[in-house]
Amino acid sequence: MKWSKIAPLMLVSAAIAVSGCGNQAAQPNAGATASPSAAMTTAASQAPVKKLTDVKVVLDWTPNTNHTGLYVAKDQGYFEQEGLNVQIIQPGEGGADAMIASGAADFGVSYQEGITQGRIQGVPIVSIAAVIQHNTSGFASPVAKNIKSPKDFENKTYGGWGSPAENAMIESLMQTEKADPNKVKIVNIGDADYFTAVKRDIDFAWIYYAWTGVDAELRGEPMNMIYLNKYSDKLDYYTPVLATSEKMIKEKPDLVKAFTAAAAKGYQFAIDKPEDAANILIKAVPDLDPKLVMASQKWLSPRYKDDAPRWGEQKRSVWDNYANWMLDHKLLDKNLDVDHAFTNDFLPASSK
Predict the structure, then answer these.
(1) Signal peptide location in the record (predicted)?
(2) Which domains are present in the chain?
(3) Which pTM was predicted?
């Protein structure tokens, strides 16, 4: 799985390009009088079955532990309890954001950076919950490369996917240590993953530790990790988030509330019972490496909620800070209307 290749702004660029009845009780013997319990069973079997509302949820990438709460909510019946029949689907070529904005999916997994850039260009998508409270991404390198701080990027080769955001991130971190970003060689490695790239001519790459970092631990390939949020509060943005469209919020607010409530239960389950949650994801997606899923889930579960008062909570300051950072680095051409980019209105009062 190439989780390290989840390039938020690359995904956004793609997104912007696409603006019964029950079983009857046994009949009593002829001439016999039905018992109260039999009568109750018969009545229950004839009671109308509540119709579930079909809902599509699109992932941002192949299934991984960012998505565990959704799979738990489906497996444990939390979605059904809210009257929802949820189908979890993979993104099309246009990306998850485009499917959410167009209505091809009712809900989906997105990123703060993606929603920010999308809304600047008119994509009507809104974040309704932060999956993880703090940014777990950063620049990783094999220990042998001796890259322990942004200053050590000098005279090294970075392997990426060609997004302007990468250059801005590298420059921003290096400036905190008065290092020269012009001394970094940037190479587009396409679809190559971290492990393949660093065995060739690449010194460091941008990854999410919860998957690629944990995978490196399991492989016995130690790495140095430089987290983005260690060097700037503005880079401690929400990645990933759950999102929906403005149309859904306006026309079906009760549905948005029901989905968010069930998802919150799913993620709270993953917080409280990481091993059980991991097994649910493994059962749902048997192609995943069970050891990686289990280890990743144990690492990530306490980070879903972290220091927030409840799972999913989003702060206006986080959205404002990152939008200003993007504007300062010319990744946006105008200010973001922050108050329309996210909402906490649909979160339950508590995830418990």
Answers:
(1) 1-25
(2) 3-14+50-133+238-340 (3.40.190.10), 137-235 (3.40.190.10)
(3) 0.86
